[in-house]
Design a protein that fits this description.
With 207 residues, the protein is mainly alpha-helical. The protein has four helices and no strands. Helix 2 runs antiparallel to helix 3, helix 2 packs parallel to helix 4 and helix 3 packs antiparallel against helix 4. It starts with a helix and ends with a helix. Belongs to the FAM136 family.
């Protein structure tokens, strides 16, 4: 119904497209990544790293600092890009959707089912836009995951079965440098990725 449509459509927050990350085993691992609605905090939706070997508390704190810095970099860049996409493309699509639905609801001659179908058709462009953004972000996250897992596999092969404390420290630092390069590379591609998304969505909304 028109009332249900007005109260159930939650678009309007760019962060609904942000990443849902989980932890896992290994020197560095990413959990399943699924874009989720904005009811979770941004901090719950970024990638996570977890060490496989026990090291000293100081080393764990140092590693935690590196992890947090990289999480914040990804979070800030994705949030910035999504906010720009929301302001310049998605909000207009939402406004058009609501205007279209309002027109449907002003039709006093048609049946309730006909009006409902009209309202549902109005939501299709915005829903497709959401799906496109989610697909692209999932693809980005998968690429980042593969890059970091390559770092993980390389270090595990070098480390061997019984590494010493000095080996753990050396290879942990080497892994961190590799993982940071992955983040550098993928943060750098975000502007072009979002630019391409913007062009696709604008072409769809004008067609």
């Amino acid at each position: 119904s028109c009332t249900a449509f007005a109260t159930s459509w939650p678009l309007g927050k760019a962060d609904r497209f942000l990443l849902s990350g989980g932890g896992g085993g290994g020197l560095s691992s990413y959990g399943p990544v699924t874009p989720v609605p904005g009811r979770h905090s941004i901090r719950d939706r970024v990638v996570t790293f977890s060490p496989v070997y026990n090291v000293t508390q100081h080393k764990r704190q140092t590693k935690a600092t590196m992890i947090e810095q990289q999480r914040q970099r990804i979070e800030m860049e994705i949030t910035k890009q999504l906010d720009d996409l929301d302001r310049n493309v998605l909000r207009k699509m939402q406004a058009n959707m609501h205007d279209c639905a309002a027109t449907c609801c002003k039709d006093t001659m048609s049946s309730m089912d006909t009006v409902q179908q009209c309202v549902e058709r109005c939501s299709v462009p915005a829903q497709r836009a959401q799906q496109h953004v989610e697909t692209e972000i999932n693809s980005f996250n998968s690429r980042l995951q593969r890059c970091v897992m390559d770092c993980n596999d390389t270090i595990k092969d070098k480390m061997g079965a019984n590494p010493s404390e000095s080996d753990i420290a050396k290879y942990t630092a080497e892994f961190e440098r590799c993982a940071i390069k992955c983040v550098d590379k993928h943060v750098a591609i975000l502007p072009n990725m979002f630019s391409s998304m913007r062009k696709v969505l604008q072409s769809r909304s004008s067609s």
